[in-house]
Inverse folding.
């Protein structure tokens, strides 16, 4: 997988997630989904993309970066009309990161076993 392409996907996803999380407008497609599901999926995808794009980052560094992003979103939402700070959103983010770690470990193990370079 080309690293530049993965980095582009990571930053594009990050920008889309920031926009969706911080816009005061309600997005109809997302309103039909459970909010915690959105957080889980967003941070799962961000973790996997971050792991591919920056393989040399330690696990703790990747977790720290994503938790900071989660807190940044929640703190910023506190100041946006119609939005609010929610610790449960951060819990959902953390679960997405945890599942992302498991998936990344499986991908890493499989690629090593099949001798496919990361």
């Amino acid at each position: 997988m080309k690293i530049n392409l993965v980095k582009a996907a990571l930053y594009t996803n990050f920008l889309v997630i920031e926009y969706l999380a911080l816009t005061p407008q309600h997005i109809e497609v997302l309103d039909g989904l459970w909010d915690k599901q959105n957080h889980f999926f967003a941070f799962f995808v961000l973790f996997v993309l971050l792991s591919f794009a920056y393989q040399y980052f330690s696990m703790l560094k990747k977790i720290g970066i994503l938790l900071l992003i989660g807190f940044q979103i929640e703190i910023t939402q506190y100041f946006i009309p119609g939005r609010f700070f929610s610790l449960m959103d951060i819990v959902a983010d953390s679960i997405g990161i945890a599942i992302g770690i498991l998936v990344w470990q499986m991908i890493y193990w499989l690629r090593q076993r099949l001798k496919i370079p990361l």
Q: What stands out?
A: The chain has a mean pLDDT of 90. Residues 3-113 form one domain. The chain is about 75% helix and 0% strand. The chain has one domain: 3-113.
